[in-house]
Specification:
The chain is mostly helical. The protein has one domain. It is built from two helices and no strands.
């Protein structure tokens, strides 16, 4: 009788260990899904930010072109670009926005590269 009781408890223990292992694997998978979802959200937000920055660059570039055209029309000679009011500020702004876009592009590349490194580690 004691052998049967210990045999049953061994089966229950095996079943419990098996269920624990399944539970751990399920938790690991859900954590991985959460990480990948967050990463995808970060990438999407960076793309959205880059779109806004590109629109700002286009607006500044357009404004710069308008200023140069206006200065050209007001003078019989070609104006020195440095003398055009707002020229330096627009150029600095365009450079800054372009750098921001590149930073976000690099971040996206890094986030996408993390997927390969995680897969190799697993």
């Amino acid at each position: 009788m004691t052998e049967q009781a210990s045999g049953r408890s061994g089966t229950k223990r095996d079943l419990g260990e098996h269920l624990d292992r399944i539970w751990r694997e399920l938790k690991d998978v859900t954590q991985q899904v959460e990480r990948e979802t967050r990463r995808g959200g970060q990438i999407a937000k960076l793309h959205y930010d880059m779109r806004g920055l590109r629109q700002e660059v286009e607006a500044h570039t357009s404004r710069l072109g308008q200023l140069i055209y206006k200065a050209q029309c007001q003078s019989t000679r070609r104006p020195a670009l440095a003398r055009i009011e707002g020229y330096d500020e627009l150029i600095a702004s365009i450079d800054s926005l372009t750098a921001d876009i590149e930073t976000r592009r690099q971040r996206i590349t890094a986030l996408r590269g993390d997927v390969g490194r995680r897969a190799d580690a697993a």
